[in-house]
Write a structure and sequence with these properties.
Low-confidence stretches: 99-117
Oligomer: single chain
Distance between the termini: 45 Å
Number of helices: 1
Structural class: mainly beta
Order of helices and strands: EEEEEEEEEEEHEEEEEEEEEEE
Radius of gyration: 27 Å
Largest sheet: 6 strands, antiparallel
Strand order of the largest sheet: 2-1-11-10-7-8
Shape: elongated
Helix content: 10-25%
Number of strands: 22
């Protein structure tokens, strides 16, 4: 069974069972969940089943719909999620088998608050600004992570003695050196066993020193440093160019 719990600050205003039928949220009485708040649009959002999961869709509202403080257009809902609309919150609570929801009665409350005006006011509060800023940061980080996962780093040898002209950085750890464990093999009598190493992480590639201090774009690197596409790397007399290979 799914319940949507409408709250204002610390006060629970209503518990609405979700019957499996689409459920609208807005300021006017024709909504299944009516919220008397000038920051809420006439028809603000809709909750429904989509592809075997509960989803919420923002209906081009003025002030936006937020799930766990992230602004959304369309988002799945899970147990424990918090939907923020205007100054109100809707808590998502799931108990038992999700399939039970499909056979529940459809007598969800149609109204419990009376609207006062017809036009939606722009919600310009510190809380909303913080949520929008946080949403932008989360979205940017997520996009960067997806992009980093999709692309594989590559080292192109520009100068120096190695056993290959290019190396694909497909593993989590790439060792540059002469040892048997090195992925990037350096040649020469005085080549170190482990000159430097490159770590592959969720958000990109990071280089750090081993027996030598590498240089990135001419600057010595003494701590873990993130690599950007096009960086020039120098280590143990060998010069590389770091790029991404799709």
């Amino acid at each position: 069974m799914i319940k949507l719990i409408l709250k204002f600050e610390t006060h629970v205003l209503k518990e609405i069972p979700f019957s499996g039928q689409p459920l609208t949220i807005g300021r006017t009485p024709d909504n299944d969940i009516q919220i008397d708040n000038l920051a809420v649009s006439t028809h603000h959002a809709r909750v429904e089943f989509g592809q075997d999961q509960l989803v919420i869709e923002d209906l081009k509202s003025l002030n936006g719909t937020f799930v766990n403080n992230v602004r959304i257009q369309n988002s799945p809902l899970r147990h424990g999620d918090t939907v923020t609309i205007g100054k109100h919150e809707i808590l998502v609570r799931l108990t038992g088998d999700l399939s039970e929801t499909l056979v529940l009665s459809t007598d969800a409350p149609k109204k419990f608050l009376v609207p006062k005006v017809d036009e939606t006011m722009v919600l310009d509060t510190k809380r909303r600004r913080e949520m929008i800023q946080q949403s932008a940061v989360v979205a940017e980080a997520a996009a960067a992570t997806v992009s980093a996962r999709a692309r594989v780093g590559k080292l192109i040898v520009l100068r120096g003695k190695t056993d290959q002209n290019a190396y694909l950085l497909s593993t989590k750890l790439t060792v540059i050196g002469k040892s048997d464990m090195a992925s990037v093999k350096l040649k020469g009598w005085f080549a170190p066993k482990a000159a430097a190493q490159i770590n592959k992480r969720e958000d990109g590639y990071y280089i750090s020193r081993a027996d030598r201090v590498p240089k990135v774009n001419g600057e010595e690197i003494t701590k873990l440093t993130k690599l950007n596409e096009g960086d020039a790397i120098e280590v143990a007399g060998v010069r590389f160019n770091f790029i991404f290979s799709e």
